[in-house]
Amino acid sequence: MVSLIKSYKSKPKDASSSSLMSKSEVSASELSYLKAEVWSLQNKLRDEKINTSNLSESFRTVANEKYELLDELTRHNLLIAELYDKLDHEREINNILMNEIEELQEQIDKNQTIMEQAVIQNVELKRGLIEANETIHQMGLVYLKLKEYSP
What we know:
Layout: H1 2-10, H2 15-25, H3 28-149
């Protein structure tokens, strides 16, 4: 078939011989074969156009999905950046609170040391008071004895 078309196309055509050549050289079966081939090629062309259209639509769909995914990725990246900012802020707050806790613990330790010293002083004062009371009591007994001996 292709060779028939090539041989037909390769023959010289002039105005007078063209109609004679087409009538004499192309038989009815060849003509119907060529018409069938044209019809087949037209069908293939139509099918290829449909395939091309389908591929274009698929490409557009894939491209749109890609852009949607990129948009979603951008949104997620922004969210991640926002979360990292919040995390940094929370860490700063945590560090401030930890420093305050350390300062309060140091103050508690100082107060506890002062309290322990006060307790020790209190115990020493109580002993001194007890000793003073005993001394006063002893002096009162001596006074009473002296009073008994005096006229």
